[in-house]
Structures are given as structure tokens and as C-alpha cells.
Design a protein that fits this description.
Chain lengths: 234, 234
DNA sequence: TGCATATTACTTGTCGACAAGAAAAATATA
DNA sequence: TATATTTTTCTTGTCGACAAGTAATATGCA
């Protein structure tokens, strides 16, 4: 009999490999399963996903473009570091994007936008009720991302998405200690923000989102000052 | 004699190929030498640069990450379109980043930052004096990018760099008709902004940069309403 | 032993080739 | 003639292999 079986069947469509490893690495980086600074081995990934190094490399190039990974020329590529000791740039940008996107949403929103936003609002409320911390982080991000989409400014939505990614990474450090003192208040604030967007009151949307953002920031700061994050060396 | 000459010498260092074609394509896209929507042929580029398709592809992936090209799965990659008919998102983001970066620069600047900023300020003044439009665009961008660097917020500097890129692309449409009514005034405004940054007066820096940004925007709007850009089909 | 140099082992960047998929062309069918 | 189907042509995505470059190890030397 012939030893050329009909090819072991790669069982995987043509452009899907890159996306798979990209998504996986992205998740592992944002959840800090891959520690900042740790090396990424191309051949190891190639074996793990049973593909050649080419799609692996493409995924790494894309991650490097988003700043999640750093490519040292002719040497290994490593997971990017976050400066956990100086989060001010992150906070500044986060607050400003909260404001800008919410303000724009109040101006540009369409009826269908509100339905989507309300959906995530309810998801978040549900997460708070069940005290599911990871779901809270995810649905809160989705809620604000939806607001940003309603603002229809790609420059802002792109930066905001990156900020929410980094926020997820930062909160991963602490998600065990993320207590439920504030989340209930956040639910109410979200409702107020929705009302302002629906009323097309951009000034009120701006004011509310600013207060909201600053409370989130101060909550993070409080978490960071309260106790050390796990035992990770910075 | 042997026909294996000591290899025609690729005469090109190891990681440099990607950067070469990346830089070239980026320039050609931003200067509209490559029309939005036009196809990019990998093999053609490979022949032109005398290298294999691999580094070409990596450059394209990076450009796609910055939104300058669009990769259609299993089909060609094309130069991204700019929505020239609705520049409002661009203007909104541009004005906000002018303000945010200048404000931060007034807070965070170090002595050496001012020297760099003044250098580009003089370059811009020189470009205005010699009426070199392309140099004006470039040095003005460099001036504000330097201010953004002094603000030391990577989120803002990255977005701002992208905005300045798109601005270069937009102005390429018109650079012939970019008259010299305002540039002289811009020189003076730049000087005022520098003074505010030096005095660490962030409120004044904010106010001045806002006025400055809005004048630039209105100048662009005026250009667009005055006459049609070349004969390019949108 | 301690430092400089050469050798080795390993990783990355590049290459040419091939196969999957899509567009274009050619052929068949009503 | 117009539409549907097949064939061909071309481009892209993936692969395995190799060369350039770096880090680690071994060797030479004071």
C-alpha cells in the first residue's frame, strides 16, 4: 500500500493560523499569563500550533505593532513591559478618552447604538450582581467601547481600545482584590451616562464621564496602594 | 574558471530590508504617490528591491497595523482610503491632541526639550521664509511632535504621530495651492506656545494650542472649499 | 585565577518553492 | 445572445531549508 495517505490534513483554513496565535498570545499577555519581559520562542510556538514559523512571525509582527511585544533585532522578541510604577500617562489618556468618546457619542449616536450600549450595561449589572470580577472588567470595557463606537471617530476608538487592553493588563495584577464597594455605584453612573447620551447632552455626558473615569482611576490607585500585587517582581 | 563568483553580494544588512521598503511605501502612501485604493504587488516590489517576498510581506503587515494599507484575505493588499469628504473625525482628534500634548509638555518639559523644540521652530521659520511648502509641512509636524515628546505620554504621542501622518497625506492633495497667508502668523503662534511651555503655564499652553489648532483646521477647510484637489477621483 | 580570544550552539532573517484560493478566460448550454 | 460551468492563470499563504548574527562555551595566555 502507498505510504502517502491523503495528507494528514492540516485541518485548518488558510488565513486562520495567524489569527489563532495572535489571539492566544494577546490574551495571555493581557492576562499576564505571559510575564512582561519574558521571551517568546518562535519554534516552540510553531511546534505547539503545528505550523511553520512564518505565520508565527506574522502574528508577532502584528503584536509588535500594537506595542504588546518588543522585537530585539537578531535576538528574541519579548513581552512588553508596563511601567506599573508610573501609571500617570495611562490615567491621563484614559480619562481624556472616556470624556472624548462619551461626548462624541452624545452628538453622533444613532438609535441602534443605544440598544447595544444598554445591552452591555445590563451585562455589567449582571456581573456586579453575581460578583464575577473578570466579567465586570470585560463588560465594563465592552460598555465603554460601545459608547466609543457610537461616537464614530476611529482615531479615538483605536486609542481607547488600546487603553482598555492595557487596563485589562493592569487589573489582572489585582483582580483578586478587586472588591465590590464601587461597582454598584458604577452601575448607576453608567445609567446616568446613557441618559445623557440619549438626551444628546454632550456637556453633561462629558461631565459625567469625567467623574466616572476619575473614580475608576482613584479606585485603581487605591488598589495599588492597599497591598502589593501578588509577588510579581517589577 | 569557476562561475561561482563570491556571491554577487546582496550588499545589504540583515534587518534593513524590511525597514527600507516600509519607509518607502509609507512615504509614497503619505505623499499620495500611491493612490488610495490602488493595489500593491508583492512580487513587483520583491523584484524592485531585489529581495524575496518575505521581508516585503513583513513591511506590509506593519503598514496594515498602522492602517495605511488594507489586506484583503487571499487577495491583494491595497492602499487605505481616507474619507476626504468627512474630515471631522480627523479634525476633532487633531485639535484634541494638539491641546493635550502641549498642555502636558508645559507640565513635564525638561530643559533639553526646549532646545529641540526651538530647533524645529527655527527650521519652520526658515521654511516659511524660503516659501518651501513641503518643508513647512514637515517642520511644522516635527515641531509639534517634539512638543508631544516633551509631554512624555506614549499614548498621546503615538496617536499624534498617526494624525500628523494623515495630515501629511491630506495636505499632499493641496500642497500646490497652500498659500503663504497664514504661515507667518503660525511662526508667531509657535513662539508664544514655546513661551507658555517654558513658563510651565499649562492653561495658557492649552489655550494657545487650541487656537493654533483651530486655525490650522480652518485653513485646511478653506483650502478644500476653494478649489478641487488636482483631478483625483474620490 | 582572571581576562581575552576562538570555537561552538542556537536563534533569527531571508530565500525559493509549492499549494490553496480567487479572478479571469474559455467553454458549454439554454 | 446571455447565462452557467469549467478551465486556466495568477496571487497569496505556508513550508522547509539555509545563511547571518548573537550568546554561550571552550580554549589560550598572562
Amino acid at each position: 500500500m502507498s505510504d502517502t495517505d491523503p495528507v494528514p490534513a492540516p485541518e485548518r483554513k488558510r488565513g486562520s493560523g495567524v489569527k489563532m496565535v495572535y489571539d492566544l498570545l494577546r490574551d495571555e499577555i493581557l492576562d499576564l499569563k505571559l510575564a512582561p519581559g519574558s521571551m517568546i520562542d518562535e519554534v516552540q510556538l510553531a511546534e505547539r500550533f503545528k505550523m511553520s514559523r512564518t505565520p508565527i512571525r506574522e502574528a508577532l509582527v502584528r503584536l509588535a505593532g500594537e506595542g504588546l511585544v518588543e522585537t530585539l533585532p537578531n535576538r528574541s522578541t519579548i513581552v512588553s513591559n508596563i511601567d506599573f510604577l508610573n501609571l500617570n500617562p495611562f490615567f491621563d489618556a484614559l480619562v481624556l478618552m472616556y470624556r472624548a468618546t462619551t461626548r462624541l457619542a452624545a452628538q453622533k449616536r444613532q438609535p441602534q447604538d443605544l440598544a447595544i450600549i444598554r445591552g452591555f450595561h445590563e451585562d455589567y449589572a449582571e456581573a456586579v450582581k453575581t460578583r464575577d470580577t473578570l466579567a465586570m472588567i470585560a463588560t465594563n470595557a465592552a460598555f465603554h467601547a460601545a459608547i466609543a463606537e457610537a461616537g464614530r471617530n476611529p482615531y479615538f476608538t483605536n486609542l481607547f481600545r488600546r487603553l482598555l487592553d492595557d487596563g485589562r493588563r493592569i487589573l489582572s495584577l489585582y483582580y483578586k482584590s478587586y472588591e465590590d464597594e464601587f461597582p454598584q455605584r458604577f452601575v448607576e453612573e453608567h445609567a446616568e451616562i446613557i441618559a445623557a447620551i440619549e438626551a444628546r447632552d454632550s456637556d453633561r455626558a462629558d461631565r459625567l464621564s469625567r467623574i466616572h473615569a476619575e473614580q475608576i482611576v482613584s479606585q485603581i490607585v487605591r488598589l495599588f496602594s492597599r497591598k502589593d500585587p501578588f509577588d510579581m517582581t517589577l
